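Lab notebook, bench 4. Still working through the backlog of constructs that have no structural model yet. Next entry is a single chain of 287 residues. Request: give me the structure tokens for it.
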Amino acid sequence: MKGIKAKHYIKEEDGLVHCVLCPHNCHIKNNKRGICGVRINLDGDLFAESYGQVSSLALDPIEKKPLYNFYPGSYILSVGSYGCNFSCSFCQNHSISFGNPEKVYISPENLANKAFDLKDHGNIGLAYTYNEPFISYEYVFDCCRLIKEKNMKNVLVTNGYVQRAPLLELLPYIDAMNIDLKSFSNDFYRKICNGNIEHVKDTIRLAAENCHVEVTCLVIPRLNDSQEEIEAMSVWLSEISPDIPLHLTRFFPRYKMTDREPTPISVLLELSSTAKKHLKNVHLGNV
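Model written out:
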């Protein structure tokens, strides 16, 4: 299945396409995919191959996203596909981000109707999560519009690695975002994630102006667990708004990063105390 024709790309000479959805700015040859693995050049046009291909679907507590300050106590229908535009060696969902999980096609209409049918079970809308939702941009966009027509909520759980134009196009339909700020070091982003922190920071700033935002940092021993780094992160977030909740989450060995221990809870508690000097809402996860 080739999916549907993608948004946000430029046709170039010699059959190349330039994808401008995320900051990787992939220039993709015919029959090749971008870094995300799901956007493919077919005869000089870009297609969103993963459109409607659902690998994961569950009715989750909103706190599991994690969103602690957005309709607490409610549930949200959570949906994921496959692929990612980062390559984090510690990925907690690597089987769907980098693997070939089993998938079923669910149209935006059917998914929106499923979300609406679950309102009696406490469901407030749809959360696009499990893998990176921005690389499924067209499907997320179509679902978001249908969910808003039903007066329900749209939530993105994302790495925040997206260009400004597509983000601005989608934001009017988004009610809340949890954005991973994986480190406060661009060296970490470059070496560990194959990304650039400045684009993520731009997403956080822009999203915070338009919807509810919470931020998650997975604290990894000897990589991003220093008091200095978490303090710098907290100060920066507080300059946007001290009301932004920060989730400091415990690392467990996963995927290609099995060479280090789980984050000591004592470290999380110390980092939480540091962050609370600047932010009103600091939460610990996976403890």
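Notes after review: Helices lie at 94-97, 108-117, 137-149, 164-170, 186-193, 197-208, 227-240, 265-275. The domain at 53-285 is CATH 3.20.20.70 (TIM Barrel). Flag for follow-up if needed.
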